[in-house]
Amino acid sequence: MSATRLVVVGGVAGGMSAAARARRLDEHADIVVLEQSDYVSFANCGLPYHLSGEIARRDALLLHTPATLAASLDLDVRTGHRVTGVDRDARRVSVAGPEGTYDLPYDALILAPGAVPVRPPIAGLDHPAVHSLRTVPDVDGLRAAVDSVLAGRSAGDAPSAVVIGAGFIGLEAVEALAARGLAVHLVELADHVLPPLDAELAPLLADELTRHGVSLHLGVSAQSVAATDEPTEYGDELEGTLGQVTVTLSDGTTLPADLVVVNVGVRPASALAKQAGLDLGPSGAIRVDADQRTSDPHIWAVGDAVEVVQAGTGAGIPVPLAGPANRQGRRAADSVLGRRTTPQKDVLATSIVRVFGLTAATTGLNQATLRRAGIDHEVMHIHPGHHAGYYPGSEQVHLVGSFAPDGTLLGAQAVGRAGVDKRIDVLATAIRAGMTADDLAELELAYAPPFGSAKDPVNMLGFVAQNVLDGTMPQWQAWDLEDVRRDTLVLDVRSHKEYERGHLEGALNIPHTELRDHLEQVREAAAGRPVSVHCASGVRSYLATRILLGEGFDARNLSGGWLTLAAVHPDL
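^ thats the sequence. predicted structure below, dont judge the formating
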């Protein structure tokens, strides 16, 4: 259809992508964008970096204004205009604007209402010391609060902040506040930071946070935020730091704070769609087809408020990410104007975050989701360098991949100081293409010593998966430790010095280079039991496992070695 008037409700990623694409496709369409806030196009992903000062100019976050959009794209953009209702039969929306209310007819309507922050059941969230970090006014208020508390303290007397929620935005807020010089406490209800990350990688982030002075409170929730009336000493760590408020946790801990940042997630802003009688999914997100069309043939929806299909499970979920929202906006405009569309594919939710010196990234399904969905899978852990080890500056990439029994890659995650983004982007592409372990092993990736290795970490993940899935390398997992210690011989093939620095009680230590000369010792110690082999990262123990298998032993290799084992069992 060629729309006489296209009305877009909501701006930012999804809405503005739709409006801009529509103008590029149809010079004569009457395109009206209704945005309830004062900012129709801003870089919300950049807000934490403005808070930290890395993005110094606030104006850098404001990508477009109504005036620039009118000049460049001839769009009628109305900020401060809130849509209060949709009359589907009459095809018009009711609008509350600065000068009163009015009705606006449409031929096609695109809803891009976004998401709203989840408000957790914490008493005292209305205290002025409590902030969120989602909009331009949010970051303005938070920067002003940080400036104020810093100005009120002498050198060496750091103000304190409590960040509630250790997801992507929470971690970015922690980094920003620490960079500004605040003492930060991070509170997370889950048992590890960044809950979408597989549990065995999360300790790397926890250690990095702790090294930068962040106090972690995991597996607990915030119960209340209350004004602090009297000066109180809170032990050596917090002595002398009197905050505006006291945050009380579910374990009884009390944290004084000059400011509190709450970011525990978002939910679809689908109230308008619900009021209009459009179909919603179980999560409350707006149901759309592969071209973004809702249950009404004249209404489309895009962005954080819509339901997408999760790759691998087929579940309908909201995915509040900028990349999908931008593509959905483009797709909706194509559909509205009768153009060829690129139908929405299942969504991988590929994400990345910087945590001080580390990068963590995910794509596809994590292990928790796979288990909940009952999807059979094998997990591979590797710890290669991000480029050739003989070239100076090589950093480990801690990489986890989950594969179906037929070798199809289902999900991948990585943490490291360099090279993480590149590998996860390749693996996201591989999942989209339906690639298997064999395909990863055969990928031709750019190589020179400063950039990678002849056997790139992506290739290595494929090699390891091939070996596990075809039986060349039987493996055991760190979470099987209790059964392994009870039922098998644990063979530690690290050097004697490594063994002395820490080992499993009762493990037999024979360095892998000496194994062939001590096979009878292993046979006697095993006494007919399987042999569970490990080294530091899984490489030397793979060689040892192959030796033992060749000599008739029932042997298997620890996936990821001691590095993964120690992450899963930190008390070893």
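The chain has 17 helices and 32 strands.
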